[in-house]
Amino acid sequence: MRSFSIFPVTINFDNYVREDAARAYYWPFSSRPNLSVLTNSFLNRIVWKTGATTDSTNLVIASSVEVTFANGTVGVVGATQEVVVSAGALKTPGILELSEIGNPTILSQNGIHALANLPTVGENLQDQITTTIGADGVETVADAVTNNISQYAQRVSAASGNTMKNMDLQTLFNVQYDLIFKQKIPRRLVFKTVATAFIAQAEYRSHKRLPVAEQETLPGYTAVPEGASDDVWKQWLVTHYRSNFHPIGTAAMMPRDIGGVVDVNHTVYGTAKVRLADASALLFQVCGHLVSTLYVEAERVADVIKSQSPLF
Ligand SMILES: Cc1cc2nc3c(=O)[nH]c(=O)nc-3n(C[C@H](O)[C@H](O)[C@H](O)COP(=O)(O)OP(=O)(O)OC[C@H]3O[C@@H](n4cnc5c(N)ncnc54)[C@H](O)[C@@H]3O)c2cc1C
């Protein structure tokens, strides 16, 4: 994170509560006759219109969803307007794949025919890590990052089996680099490297700029001695890694030709009447916690639906 962190929160200071989805979006509207919530029921897959594609658009059109209900029976719920999937960054891609949307190579290995070819469904997973390291020398960190962007892109591309292309990743990383280091938007630093850790410690040990914190506690000289090698740093980072439980990006919004899964209106490419509204659609990590951003995303999806639907 550069400088200090500013991000929206969902605290209602008047009522002295932290808002949540049920309190803000369900309870006030639960008596509406056109709203039904099925608890303990699971979406298995999206069901497509027979014939699947229209001649003019070549899109597969959602007609209903297959659901396992709370009593264990399986049935179909019709979708006269749209299907909006919000199962989270870890489950939404699986639902798309079970609905025949995804990477044909992966789908065919599981006996599923790809109705829409979207190779990056389930790729691009990004999380924030909770291994805290600070650095005073932002420009030095910036240099270390920019010098390594092509290497980062190469590694991430390889990790996705080259589904995400090296050059596209470099473009995306450069966008983040510009946001963080040039536009100085407070954002979480996504490039966590041995270099940044090393620089942070070197800065601290040489200048002791924080008189209130006289001793380094993490990682500490015992775990990472002064002048430790990159391998020692790497070992410390790997063993101290903890997820911040903020997964995103597994069905990301970006142009289809560079690996996008949804368009700017949150519609899944190659489909009609299917949108995603959850963390899977976020392309980059945000500075801070995700929930407030996701409520904004959901409200935006609602606005888009209202602007496009004949019902409103
Ligand atoms: C321990 C923990 C602490 C966190 N603390 C904070 C915090 O303090 N502040 C903050 O902003 N964020 C916090 N987060 C992150 C935040 O909770 C997530 O980023 C956010 O909830 C993601 O929203 P989502 O809508 O993408 O997915 P989710 O909130 O995960 O919603 C997906 C929903 O879909 C349901 N689902 C999944 N599969 C199916 C299926 N097949 N059929 C039907 N339903 C299905 C799931 O049960 C779930 O209810 C925390 C996360 C964790 C795990």
What is the rounded Rg?
Answer: 23 Å
H and E string = EEHEEEEHEHEHHHHEEH
Question: What portion of the residues fall into strands of 2 or more residues?
Answer: 5-15%
What is the fourth-level CATH superfamily of the largest domain?
FAD/NAD(P)-binding domain
CATH class category name of the largest domain: Alpha Beta
Q: What is the CATH topology of the largest domain?
A: FAD/NAD(P)-binding domain
* Ligand list: flavin-adenine dinucleotide
Kindly report the average pLDDT value: 86
How would you portray this structure in words?
The structure is a single chain. The protein is an alpha/beta fold and 312 residues long. It has 2 domains: 11-124 and 248-308, FAD/NAD(P)-binding domain, CATH 3.50.50; 138-240, no CATH class. Helices cover 32% and strands 13% of the residues. The chain has 8 helices and 10 strands. The chain has helices at residues 21-26, 92-98, 104-109, 138-159, 166-182, 194-207, 230-240, 291-308; strands at residues 11-12, 17-18, 42-53, 60-68, 74-78, 83-85, 101-102, 116-117, 271-272, 274-276. The strands form 4 sheets. Strands 3, 4, 5 and 9 form a 4-stranded mixed sheet that branches. The protein has a two-stranded antiparallel ribbon with strand order 1-2. Strand 3 (42-53) and strand 4 (60-68) form a beta hairpin. Helix 4 (138-159) packs antiparallel against helix 5 (166-182) and helix 6 packs across helix 7 (230-240). The radius of gyration is 23 Å and the shape is globular. Mean pLDDT is 86; it is low at 188-193 and 208-213. Flavin-adenine dinucleotide binds at residues 42-43, 86-89, 91, 95, 245-246, 278-279, 289-291, 294.
